[in-house]
Amino acid sequence: MDEKKIMEEKNIRDDIPDFSPGDLVRVTTTVKRGAKTRLHRFEGRVISKRGAGTGKTFTVRKISQGVGIEKIFPLNSPSIDSIKVLKKGKVRRAKLYYLREREGKAARIKEKK
Amino acid sequence: MLIGRKMGMTRIFKETGEAIPISIIKASPLFVLGKRTKEKDGYNAYILGFGKKKEARVKKPLLGLCKKAGVEPVEVVREFRTDDLSGYEVGNEISVSILKEGEMVEVTGWSKGRGFQGVVKRWGFKGGPGSHGSHFHRTPGSVGAGTYPGRVLKGKKLPGRMGNERITIKNMKVIKIDEENGLVGLKGGVPGANDGLLLLRKRENKG
User: Fold this and answer.
1) pTM for the full predicted model
2) Residue B66 resides in a domain
3) Portion 6-25 of B in contact with A at CB < 8 A
4) Does the distance separating the beta carbons of A77 and B19 come in below 8 Å?
5) Are B74 and B166 part of one and the same domain?
6) DSSP 3-state of A52
């Protein structure tokens, strides 16, 4: 599978900070509307990371106006402007899907020191 | 004209953020082993040799052909018909750089063998209801009329061997060329399993 890696090489971004499920992140993406491009921010908890190579994605979940919103971002996409890790979360599993069934106090995640 | 092997699929991004699925084909080492000429053989073609093989494992007639062309023992030999034989000399290496990014190519491969399959998978028949006492699930049903014509018409779609056939896809776009490693990236899927043999031809007339 070496050949795959060679082809993907230039498409893997090395400017993305290291983060893991449980972290509170702010993802800034560029949105193209007509000729104009503007930045769009999305802030929430990373609840999963999956895939390999250029197909790697991560899911960010937040509660907006009482409704849970999840967004899946391709990690290596050029449309991601930047990712900022706001808080490190202390969690014991890789996929935090249990957060979907919880809200408020029960959905809290301890901060990693 | 290139001979290659399918290495698998991946996706790469355009600058706009759009992801393009690509098939990766390794098309090196590739050499011209010989030529067929109109005078001698009745048609014009290049004989190309692809891949590497231990000398001890190559059949002697082929080894002779390789030696004559002055190249390392090859694994696969295929002929490519052409009108113009002046492009390459015997012993020349053919690089993937004969293709350019954005160009269209024709890809020939051999599809994955599916074995003996029924009409639903092989021909896309709808099949019957799964339940409600239908007793008609995945069988082909009626194969024709009665006393007249009194036989099953030729070409009737019935169960049988599926796959493992030669398939040519026209107009595949070249997305990436890696000359150093002898790799070609084409948009979309190509026939066959990983490590399967593929033949690439440039699209001359974009009709």
Assistant:
1) 0.84
2) yes
3) 7-8, 10-17, 19, 22, 24
4) yes
5) no
6) coil
